[in-house]
Amino acid sequence: MPDLSIIIVNYKTPQLILDCLTSVYNYTQDISFEIVVVDNQSGDKSQSIIQTSFPATHWFQMGYNSGFARANNFGIRQAQGRYILLLNSDTLLIDNILAHCVQALDAQPDVAAVSAIQLQANRQIRPNLYTTFGQMRRAFYILPGAEASERLLNKLMPDTQYDDPNQVDWLSGAFLMTRASVIAKAGMLDESFFMYGEDVEWGYRLGQQGRLLLLRDQKFVHLEYGSNENNQQHVVTHINRFKPQIQVSQLLWVRKQYGIGAYLVLILHYIGMIPIVFIWKMAVNLRERRLPWVDLDNQWAFTKQVGIFLRFFWKTLLNEPGFYKV
Fold first, then answer.
1. Distance between CA atoms of 216 and 142, rounded to whole angstroms?
2. Would you place residue 234 in the very low, low, confident or very high pLDDT band (cuts 50, 70, 90)?
3. Percent of the chain with pLDDT over 90
4. Over the stretch 270-303, which tens digit does the pLDDT of each residue have?
5. Count H helices, E strands: the chain?
6. Based on CB atoms within 10 Å of each CB, which residue in 17, 205, 264, 299 is the most buried?
7. Gyration radius from the chain CA atoms
8. CB neighbour burial string for 279-313, b if at least 16 within 10 angstroms, e if fewer
């Protein structure tokens, strides 16, 4: 039995996986591991490209684009290791982080899962990464950026406080190492999620089995969005902070973890914000002596996003199992 099973989901990213696996083999020492790649119907030469360079790689085909949760669950079912690592294809290791994480889990049986600090391609720490449920929930509300708004949101959705500075509410699925025995108790990823949000929801269930630690002395590179150029092109604004798929998934998480009331409050908030964002922008236009209906692309984009959320409204409200793919 290997110490670690490394599960990577592939969707048309053979070069990223080659780079990722090169870093895994170059830096990993003192532990045994296996590589499990699950392919989401890439329809290219990914398998031959990767297995030519890394023939020991176990390769599995999903037969359709199943997203993150379903593909990782398939990989978990094939895994033979004591520990399971979900690892994004667009990640690079820069030292013997895998052995350090295994040692941390070996030494602390009350820890359910561990992760590490994410670096950008330039090796700078990735800013504004959420580690608490409160941070995630507060980010969904579109309020004026004044201190009063921040204080109100912090009061309504406070962050969990832990004695251990490494302990967090949830860990990013880009690099998440847990025990096979913990998964057996907590269950696998929720397959209603297509992409995004599944690691947040899983974090809640993993956290019921033990502490979740973000090892701040361990780091890895997360290039991010390697397989989706549209994400790279997404322009973030105050009212359009997330791609539709991200927010549909996060709304599903809110419904699952916090119930109908929390979900309805968010939906009503978004619907109520539609006239507000238009009135605000028109007032700005008038103040700047422009026609009131010019430069409203951002407001129309927000309206379109809300329309996408509402397509999933009844399904989410009733918490129906399914495939929440935009």
1. 31
2. low
3. 84
4. 999 999 999 999 999 999 999 988 999 999 999 9
5. 12, 8
6. 17
7. 21
8. eebbeebeeeeeeeeeebeebeebbebbeebeebe
Q: Does residue 205 form part of some domain?
A: yes
Tokens of 17: 């996986």
Which domain-ending residue is among 230, 259, 278? Answer: 230
pLDDT category of residue 229 using cuts at 50, 70 and 90:
very low
Of 230, 252, 274, the residue at which a domain comes to its end is 230
By CB atoms closer than 10 A (0-12, 13-18, 19+), residue 116 is: buried
Q: What tokens appear for 128 in the block? A: 């504004």
CA distance 318 to 130: 27
- What count of other Cβ atoms lies within 10 Å of the Cβ of residue 29? 9
Domain region containing 59:
4-131+168-230
* The dihedral sign for the CA sequence 113, 117, 122, 123: negative
- Three-state SS at 5: strand
Can you give 137-171 as a three-state secondary structure string? HHHCCCCCCCHHHHHHHHHHCCCCCCCCCCECCCC
Residues in the chain: 326
CA-nearest of 250, 239, 150, 236 to 197 is 250
Tokens found for residue 321: 């199992």
Enter the tokens of residue 278. Answer: 């238009």
